[in-house]
Amino acid sequence: MASNDRITVVHLVRAFNGIECFREFLDSYRSAPPGIPCDLLLVMKGFSSSEETTPYRSLVEELPHRVIAVPDIGFDLGAYFTATASIDSGRLCFLNSFSRILVPGWLAKFDAAFQGPGVGLVGATATWGSGLSYALYRLRLPSAYHAVFPDRRNVWEQFRSIDRDVSGREPANLLRRRLRILISLRDIGRQIAWFRTFPGPFIRTNAFMIEASTLRRLHFPPVRRKVDAFRIESGRRCLTCQVQALGLRTLVIDRHGAAYEPERWPASRTFWQGDQEGLLVADNVTRVYQDGDANRRSMLARLAWGPTAEPSPALESLQPDQPGPRPVTE
Question: Is pTM beyond 0.85 here?
Answer without folding.
Answer: yes
